[in-house]
Amino acid sequence: MKKKVLVGTRKGMLVLDKNDDTWKITSDHFMGIPVNMVFEDPRNGTWWVALDHGHWGNKLHYSTDQGKHWEEITAPQYPEGSMIKEDVSANLRYIWAFSPTGNGSSDGLWIGTEPGGLFHLDGNNNATLVESLWNHPSRPEGWFGGGRDYAGIHSVVVDPRDADHIYVGISVAGVFESKDGGQSWQPKNKGLRADFLPDPHAEIGHDPHLLVCCPSDPDVLWQQNHCGIFRSGDGGNLWEDISDPGGEANFGFAIAADPDNPLRAWVAPAISDGMRVAVDKKLCICRTDDGGKSWKTFRKGLPQAYCYDIVFRHALISNGEDVLFGTTTGNLFSSPDAGESWNVLSNYLPMIYCLAFAR
Predict the structure, then answer these.
(1) Quick check: 203 pLDDT over 80?
(2) CATH architecture of 89-358
């Protein structure tokens, strides 16, 4: 069981350690700099951190000794002449996702970015744009920005049984799948709904907020979507709307899948896309134990009056029993019992962007 959590915030990265069943902040890194993505490579324990320096742009750092020393490498760069559209050149605006490319110790990483480019970082730390996805015929007219200016790849899911089988979640475009290591891509959006489009059931133009899978049963995919919560039990061939129209589990950004139970997942609800605050100004986490047929709402230990927090898409994680999340107002919580009760870790942090388990 992993005993650390990396926390990316608006003003640096924190490290949590678990001792005697209690999570505590033990160190911080990159003080004052926005840390938009954190990730530990499960193959070798390397920590990866994406920084957004604003004026100085996006930077990429890694550590092989749990943050004692950091190395900077060149961040992904779009090839000269790459265009978002006819009159807008493509330049890196945001690093939004990390994922190992395979099971080997030096197979590299997939890196998802805005404006919609997927990069392969090889064992020598050279990043190459995956041209097959960037040049997909749907991109010039069918991909567009939602909360950000341009489309962004925020989710990369690699099938643990087959490293050539890859899914990406793109906001706004939808889910795309490759079965040949990224040489070709097909949209996987059947059953989704995009209420903001003239045709809500269009093949392209959906807005998954986060895409995750159940590692023990990778054909089970979950997404918190702009238009609800969706689940697929057949590898994305068909999505089912599992939102709870009579309850809290509907709109939100974050979703976490149980690593061992394909029927269990957690979401962090907000009121709606037009009212992005906690439902009834009361913070809660919802969990399904039956694949979305029903949802339970948990509030014990969470603020229940005048709470305006929401949870960003990468800021809710679970290893099955431990569940942790951070909010836009710098509140950090942990649960030792699969989300049924909560402990406050801090109320005084910067805006929290992302969490990731580490060794």
Answers:
(1) yes
(2) 7 Propeller (2.130)
